[in-house]
Every structure is written in structure tokens, then in C-alpha cells.
Amino acid sequence: MRSRHAWFIAGVALVASAAPYPHVTQAQPAAAQPAAQCAVEPKADALLRKMSTDLADMKAFRFNTDSVMEVVTRQGERIQGIAESTVWVQRPNKLRVDRMGPLGGATVYYDGSTLSIYGKRDNLYATTQAPDNLDATIDFARDQLSLDAPGADLLYGNPYAALTDDVVSGRYLGIEPVGDRMCHHLAFRGNETDWQLWVEDGPRALPCRFVIVSKHETGAPEFAVTTSDWSPAPGFSPETFAFEPPPDAGKIGFVALKDMARGAQQPRR
User: Fold this and answer.
1) pLDDT (tens digit, 9 = 90+) per residue, 58-89?
2) Largest alpha-carbon pair distance within the chain?
3) For residues 98 and 87, what is the distance between their CA atoms, to the nearest angstrom?
4) d(CA 39, CA 32)
5) Local structure of 251: helix, strand or coil
6) Cis peptide before 20, with omega less than 30 degrees from 0?
7) Which among 90, 101, 147, 219 could bridge 141 via Cys, Cβ 3.0 to 4.6 Å?
8) Distance in angstroms (rounded) separating the CA atoms of residues 71 and 182
9) How far is CA 29 from CA 51, 102, 135, 136, in A?
């Protein structure tokens, strides 16, 4: 059973975060200050607002991500872990994330009342009650369970408020290619993190790439996620977000899962 747990935790570590995880907002979005009150260039602010509005207007959607999470060893060596995910969102209270990395994978299900994570390879799962809306569940998963959806700051009902909570300055850097899309490059500085955002140049200002540097972590590790294949939808079937554990699946508590996932992420050199 020990090796079975080890492989499951390796997969879960791809969605679990080492504390503190490199997300932008450190406080509740309601306390956010408008970026326009800081030293943010008007064009950068306008594009960030448009992206936030366009994302909030999408009530149900799916997209893919390629993410890179960096850790820094005690000797200063930078090690990057790569993962691919598919994310389903249905506002106000549905989320699913399928993530796969080199050591395995895991699926996170949120159906409006219950949050579950399942590793198919090892047939293990954990489940817990969760808040009744997506914003609160994102915070609950981060703060209580050390779980994070890829680019979760972009999934809030008001991404602008979440992203600008810690912003002290921002600027517009120009248009650059991200894959087959031309995207506006924005750069922001904060007290806790510096971050960059590439926003698609098109009718819908969708995020193309998101890069965060944790300024106060040893070695200032970087987290980067590239998004693609955005597919707005009128809605998804309830089965998309519902988790029913297989009869022979093993159950593990979220407390133990969090502790082991954190341990799996720590650099050992």
C-alpha cells in the first residue's frame, strides 16, 4: 500500500501547492484596490479590465493548460516540473481539473458542495465538503487543502479584483506571439509577487500566458501557465463535475494528503 500511496501523491503534487503557492492575490478580492490608483499604465489597466470582463461573461467554458512550476534546491539549483491540464468551469459553482505530469496525474472535481480528488492510476481518492460557490472554494482549496487549479486567479468571478489586490505598478510591453496567437504583453509588480500576463489580441481578450515570480521565496521561483483551446459552452452535463468513487477505490484523508503532497514537492538536494 505504501508504494500505491507514493504514486498517488506524486500525481497529486502536480495540483497541490507548496506553501505559499505562487498565486497573485494574498487577500480576499473584496479588499482589492483598483489598479488605476496605482502606477499602472492606462493601456495595461484597460486590457486587464477587458480580459476580466470577457472571462466573467463566459458562464461555462473549457480550456487546456501547459504549466511549469519551479523549485529551488538548497544549493540554488532550479528544478522545473511540467504538467498538462484540461479545465472545465461552470459558474457559479462547478469546476473540474484533469492534470497529468511525468509521475502520474489526478482529477479534481467540485460539484457545488463537495470537493474531491482522484488518482485513476492508483485508484485512490480524497473528498470533503466545500463552499457553495467557486470563488470561496478556490480560496478554501488553497488555504485549507493546499490545492490549486492552474491559473486559478483567472477563474474568479472578478479576476481583475483578484489580480490587482497586491499591484503597485504595471505597464504595457507590446504585442508578441504565444503559439499561433498574437497577444498583448502586460507586466505588473506587487509587494509579494511580480507577474506577467499575455492577453489575446482579438474579439475576446482571453489570457494566453501567465507568469508569476514569488519574490520572497528562496531563489524567487517562477510559475508559468500557457492556456489554449478556449471553448465557451452553454453548459456541461452534471456528470462532468460529479465524482463517484469506484467500488474498489481506496480513500485517504485530505489532511494526510496535504502533508504528503507538500513533502513530495520539497527539493531534496
Assistant:
1) 999 999 999 998 888 888 898 888 999 999 99
2) 56
3) 7
4) 15
5) strand
6) yes
7) 147
8) 30
9) 16, 34, 9, 10
Is the torsion defined by CA of 15, 21, 24, 26 positive or negative? positive
Statement: residue 34 has pLDDT above 70: no
Residue type, 23: H
| CA gap 256, 115 in Å, rounded | 16
Helix (H, G, I), strand (E, B) or coil at 69: strand
pLDDT of residue 190 exceeding 50, the answer is yes
Please list the residues that pair with 167 across neighbouring strands: 190
In tens, the pLDDT along 194-229 reads 999 999 999 999 999 999 998 888 888 899 999 999
Pairwise CA distance, residues 91 & 12, whole Å: 25
**pLDDT grade for 262, boundaries at 50, 70 and 90:** low
| 200 DSSP β-pair partners | 183
Quote the CA–CA distance of 118 and 104 in Å, as a whole number: 11
DSSP letters, 211-226, are EEEETTSTT--EEEEE
Contact 183, 175 (CB under 8 A): yes
Residue 101: what pLDDT?
72
Give CA angle at 24 (20, 28), nearest 5°: 90
